Amino acid sequence: MVIMKTAAFRRAAKASSVRCLGMALLALAAATPGTAQNATDSLKLPEDLTIFEDRDPNLHKPTAVVNGQIITKTDVDQRMALIVLANGGKIADEELARLRLQVLRNLIDETLQIQEAAANDITITKPELEESFARVATNFRQTPKDFAKYLTTKGSSAASISRQIEAETAWSRLLRRKVQPFVNVSQEEVKAVIDKLNASKGADEYRVGEIYLSATPENADQIFGNARNIIDQIRQGGSFAAYARQFSEASTAAVGGDLGWVRAGQLPDALAQAVAEIQVGQIAGPVAIPGGYSIVFLSDKRKVLTADPRDAVLSLKQISIIFPKGTGEAKANAIVKTFGEQMKGLQGCGSVADIAAKLGADVIDNDNVKIRDLPAPLQPLMLDLQVGQATPPFGSPDSGVRSLVLCGRDDPQDAGAPSFEQIMSQIEDERVNKRARIYLRDLRRDAIIDYN
């Protein structure tokens, strides 16, 4: 058992004390041979009985007690299930043990954030949590009730997500009250950034995601290893945003680690170099920076104040055929061949309906699609496509065969500089983020944490 004792004892003493109560076991002695009446007969217990409540012996076993508030093994298990779910259920056994330790650290931080917010009269109401949970469920195209059932089938729960929502919301409000008002950005600083932007027109700009892990000289090797393992999991198909939400200690964790659009000069030198050396869709790290390590993900790239052809807005018609269930490879190839031959005879968007009728295909119109929002393999095709032309057939065994027909294109104008207010907000966010890290670090130092 490890106990961290600090000056926060007075504050912790004010919190409600929660103790883990042991289960008392009643031993029923069996009657000795020859006894006419069994000792349990007086209880009149049915022989064919059903237990109406399943009891998990680990359900209330504390893993840590943070200023008197218990974090149970069940809390850790349910949060772990979310990570496994985000990785498609593919996490190596040796990785699970390390992830459990990190999840416990995250739950401890969340507990500290909620406690500190409550100490400053900030609480998140039940209706607010329900509304946020409903928005998450909508992202999965489910009702809150169905989503809660879905989480249960995966070993997690609605309570686990709600706890994370509560911590993120409470912490955000606390920072707005106690940190943000004391962060000042002068007009001269903003003007200097605008001048640099104008001078950098045509230079590369990056859409970057970051996972930040704090480290000390004593645990640097361990944190470096943790970062390497996270990178391995993401490269094997894990969600960068999901890992950022669970593990990043930066305030951007709440938005999946997204830093937005940044130029190399806005990043620490080590991160700027790492980002410049990778391609869109790649990950780099662990990168040593003051205070710890960062993992960076390059999700997009463009030129400063320069129009990006991928921002062109297209008017499209999609023509598609779904393979009947049980379609074999030979029959699917025949359908694709016929589809391709018909599309070669396309004479502009006006002939799409006639071709669809011949093929028994479906047609969907969409007049507001950016090239950058299309799947990566389609983007170069659409850049070279002329109005009235169609892409080559594409698809999969599950989705069938389809083609996109270009019916119109609105090319982008040269990008304008971010507004004065946007730049000021970005600088403020960076400074709030830095102070938030220090704030949370101090909370950890002041906490009474009993590990079991």
TrEMBL record:
Start and end residues of each PpiC domain: 203-300
UniProt KW keywords: Chaperone, Isomerase, Periplasm, Rotamase, Signal
Organism: Sphingobium fluviale
Signal peptide: 1-36
Gene3D superfamilies the record matches: 3.10.50.40, Porin chaperone SurA, peptide-binding domain (1.10.4030.10)
Name this polypeptide is given: Parvulin-like PPIase
Presence of keyword Isomerase: yes
One Pfam family matching this protein: SurA_N
